[in-house]
Amino acid sequence: TLLVLDFGSQYSHLIIRRLRDLNIYSELLPCTQRIADLPFQPKGVILSGGPYSVYDSSAPHVDPAVFDLDVPILGVCYGLQEMAWQLDQHNVLAGEKREYGHAKLTCEQGEGSASSVNVLFQDVPNGVDVWMSHGDKLSHLPESFSTIAATSNAPFAGIAHTSKPYYGIQFHPEVTHTSHGTRILENYAVRICKARQHWTMEEFVGTEISRIRALVGEKGQVIGAVSGGVDSTVAAKLMHEAIGDRFHAVLVDNGLLRHNEAETVHQTLTSHLGINLTVIDASERFLTELKGVSDPEKKRKIIGKNFIEVFQETAHKIAKEAAGTPNAGDIEWLLQGTLYPDVIESIAFRGPSQTIKTHHNVGGLPAAMHLKLIEPLRELFKDEVRILGTKLGIPEELVWRHPFPGPGLAIRTLGEVTRSQVEITRQADRIFIEEIIAAGLYRKISQAYAALLPIQVVGVMGDKRVHEQPICLRAVETTDFMTANWFDFDRPFLDKVSSRITNEVSGVCSVFQNITSKPPGTIEME
Ligand code: XMP
Question: Is the pLDDT of residue 275 over 50?
Answer without folding.
Answer: yes
